[in-house]
Amino acid sequence: MNGIELAEAFYxxxxxSMIKREFPEYENIIAAGVAGSGSECFGYDDEIxxxxxxxxxxxxxxxGEEIVDxxxxxxxxxxxxxxxxxxxxxxxxxxxxVGGGRRGVIRISDFYMEKTGSPDGRLxxxxxxxxxxxxxxxxxxxxxxxxxxxxxxxxxxxLSHFPDDVRLKKIAGELLIMGQSGQYNYCRCMxxxxxxxxxxxxNEFVNSAMHTVFLIxxxxxxxxxxxxxxxxxxxxxxxxxxxxxxxISSDNxxxxxxxxxxxxxxxxxxxxxxxxxxxxxxxxxxxxxxxxAYSVNDSITxxxxxxxxxxxxx
Length: 314
Prior knowledge:
The longest helix is centred in the middle third of the chain and has 28 residues, at 164-191. The chain starts with a helix and ends in an 8-residue tail after the last helix. The radius of gyration is 23 Å and the shape is elongated. The protein has 13 helices and six strands. The strands form two sheets. Strands 5-2-1-6 form a four-stranded mixed beta sheet, with helices on both faces. Strands 3-4 form a two-stranded antiparallel sheet. Strand 3 (86-87) and strand 4 (90-91) form a beta hairpin. 53% of the residues lie in helices and 6% in strands. It is of the alpha+beta class.
């Protein structure tokens, strides 16, 4: 049982009845679930990740004070703290009586403000460029167990993926880096016998290629330590993860160098083909990521975004 399943079971066994019994007038207002920081919110928790910040608990996301006042929020937090201190062998930490942790009572506006800089998920096009992608991933991960009025879920849906022009600008920038780092600089560094610089070039290529794959799937790339695992779950181009992992986990001996060059070109080709199928990249760019970058940039509708530096979004 992973963390989300544990939290859901705990909520339905103890949390739902507590809310119904002690706060019946708020039962349809409180959104219950798990979302935010931590491997368990992505379903990636294991025995190793449970060494810190892991608990049997859930979140009660509540609207502003005009609907749920401070006293009610305080009483909710106290009632939550009185729930069983251990569940299925997992202990719950002591909570501050006024909240403030990853679980318990959380104002909806506070949650989204922390993750996106906006209390209601409304972001201007410019603001979308400034929010870290891993933070957007944390804003929409996890699982909502109940949200009758839909306020919390509506914001999640609003933030589920980048607006089209923002996404295209990001793809364009990542493609340019792919071309410069993998298809150009890696070979030049190897010819100079600069293996360290060559590996740094591959690191840049892999990072940009992964970001592009997530963008093609209209998904946010999570915090780097979960990126490969998350990529393997994507419906499109997930098969590229094995080659990308090889690029940064193997040395640059001659036989590997030849293999790596092939992986770089194959990755670029498959990504460009996927973009062409989507209709956002010209068929005339061949296998060149840099040409593809400018082609994608040309497909941006908003003139202000299109005319910004091609690396503006990365």
